[in-house]
């Protein structure tokens, strides 16, 4: 953690100013705020531009590259400015679950209220890491608490990223933790348990009515590597069930994210027409082709796989170590096939004290250029969220979600773990 007491204080002061409406650039009619960037990666071009001034008025970008008039100037001349980062797979209600015991402990011993308090801290952490927008993919047993965190951020009660939320997610009976307790002991579940086509439609309606932006399904479980190297699974939903859920969500103009790590889970999800494949450790070439042609996004979440592998292997599941290698091969094939890839980390699956921007290094290690990895976390991620008119690039008219790093992230992508300036909607939350 790079957050010192000093910067915390600074952020606190900015927040106080923000809450009392005093932050410059926040009120309409105020003079613009200028950001003097040493370099600018605008998210449209992969070529950085030198010495660019960004004019921010209210919550939006007014001009990129003009000369400053009167107004406040933030000196970022030693920094590279880029669009606010977007993490399309997070769990702010979770504090890391390397093993089943970690997970069970949170659901059994922490009330949803306590978990929500922790989530507000995670939301703040996400913003301080430079993630100005997140798609939070289910609360893991904390009900609709993500809707409330989103609301508190929107209302300016707490600092945090823009959020799209999935609420409870769905899986079938017997497939999702908590598992393994005596049949006569009622235990909470990390998802809404859904069986059958009609139940699926009903759950979609229920979750949307309570504030879900996305519907999340768990499409497979129980992974094993076949002798021919294919990562196999037990599919959870039948294809009919998945199709009904996707149809109902789409009918209500909402998108579906599918946790699918292996052969059948991915294939069924693609057939059912989901909008994003989460994790996708193994995907056949045929399914990659379908994903490419239908514009289904791939959210690979690489870092978390490596992070949990050893712990889970030690707890008796060595398959998680093999899955990392299979994942790399799939990622490289997906790139070759031209599948749209969006940055997502599964933060919360690992401790929020770890900067999710570690994912960038993994994407580059597995074959992306730093520019491609940054695009996955900006313009491409914005497209997955249907927010490409508002965020993901730095251009006039878009929301002023701008971060900066001390150096050139195209030379050293790990600099994205050192975001030291964060502006969201024209409000500064962190300064170098
Ligand atoms: Zn997840």
Characterise the protein shown here.
The protein has 432 residues and is α/β, with parallel strands linked by helices. The protein has 13 helices and 18 strands. The chain has helices at residues 5-19, 100-109, 112-129, 145-154, 197-209, 239-251, 263-272, 285-294, 302-314, 319-337, 358-365, 370-376, 379-384, and strands at 33-40, 49-57, 60-64, 72-83, 85-90, 131-136, 162-165, 170-171, 192-193, 214-218, 220-225, 231-235, 255-260, 276-279, 297-299, 402-405, 421-424, 427-430. It is globular. It starts with a helix and ends with a strand. Mean pLDDT is 92; it is low at 1-26. Bound molecules: zinc ion. Residues 89, 91, 137, 346, 349 line the site of zinc ion (ZN). Zinc ion (ZN) is lined by residues 89, 91, 137, 346, 349.
What attributes characterize this protein structure?
432 residues; alpha/beta; seven-stranded mixed beta sheet; four-stranded parallel beta sheet; 13 helices; 35% helix; globular; disordered N terminus; binds zinc ion
Provide a compact summary of the structure.
Helix 5 runs parallel beside helix 6, helix 6 crosses helix 7 (263-272) and helix 11 (358-365) crosses helix 12 (370-376). This protein has helices spanning 5-19, 100-109, 112-129, 145-154, 197-209, 239-251, 263-272, 285-294, 302-314, 319-337, 358-365, 370-376, 379-384, and strands at 33-40, 49-57, 60-64, 72-83, 85-90, 131-136, 162-165, 170-171, 192-193, 214-218, 220-225, 231-235, 255-260, 276-279, 297-299, 402-405, 421-424, 427-430. It is built from 13 helices and 18 strands.
């Amino acid at each position: 953690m790079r957050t010192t007491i000093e910067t915390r204080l600074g952020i606190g002061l900015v927040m106080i100013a923000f809450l009392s409406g005093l932050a410059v650039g926040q009120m309409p009619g105020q003079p613009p705020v200028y950001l003097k960037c040493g370099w600018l990666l605008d998210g449209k071009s992969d070529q950085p531009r030198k010495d660019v001034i960004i004019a921010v008025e209210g919550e939006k970008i007014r001009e990129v590259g003009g000369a400053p008039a009167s107004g406040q100037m933030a000196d970022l001349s030693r920094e590279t400015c880029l669009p606010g980062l977007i993490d399309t797979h997070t769990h702010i209600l979770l504090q890391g679950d390397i093993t089943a015991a970690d997970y069970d402990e949170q659901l059994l011993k922490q009330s949803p209220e306590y978990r929500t308090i922790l989530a507000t801290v995670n939301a703040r952490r996400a913003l301080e890491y430079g993630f100005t927008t997140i798609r939070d993919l289910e609360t893991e047993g904390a009900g609709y608490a993500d809707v409330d965190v989103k609301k508190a951020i929107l209302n300016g009660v707490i600092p945090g990223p823009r959020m799209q939320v999935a609420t409870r997610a769905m899986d079938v009976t017997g497939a999702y933790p908590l598992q393994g307790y005596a049949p006569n002991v009622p235990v909470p579940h990390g998802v809404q348990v859904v069986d059958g086509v009609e139940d699926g439609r009903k759950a979609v309606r229920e979750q949307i009515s309570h504030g879900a932006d996305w519907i999340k399904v768990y499409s497979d479980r129980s992974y094993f590597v076949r002798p021919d190297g294919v990562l196999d699974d037990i599919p959870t939903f039948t294809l009919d069930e998945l199709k009904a859920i996707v149809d109902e969500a789409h009918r209500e103009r909402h998108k579906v994210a599918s946790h699918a790590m292996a052969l059948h889970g991915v294939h069924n999800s693609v057939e059912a027409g989901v909008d994003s494949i989460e994790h996708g450790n193994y995907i056949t070439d045929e399914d990659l082709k379908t994903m490419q042609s239908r514009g289904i996004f791939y959210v690979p979440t690489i870092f978390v796989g490596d992070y949990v592998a050893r712990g889970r292997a030690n707890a008796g599941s060595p398959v998680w170590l093999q899955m990392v290698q299979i994942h790399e091969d799939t990622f490289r094939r997906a790139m070759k096939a031209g599948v749209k890839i969006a940055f997502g980390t599964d933060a919360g699956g690992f401790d929020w004290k770890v900067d999710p921007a570690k994912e960038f290094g993994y994407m580059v290690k597995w074959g992306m250029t730093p520019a491609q990895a940054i695009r996955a976390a900006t313009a491409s991620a914005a497209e997955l969220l249907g927010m490409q008119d508002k965020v993901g690039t730095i251009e006039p008219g878009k929301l002023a979600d701008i971060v900066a790093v001390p150096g050139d992230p195209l030379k050293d992508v790990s600099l994205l773990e050192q975001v030291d300036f964060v502006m969201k909607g024209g409000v500064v939350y962190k300064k170098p």
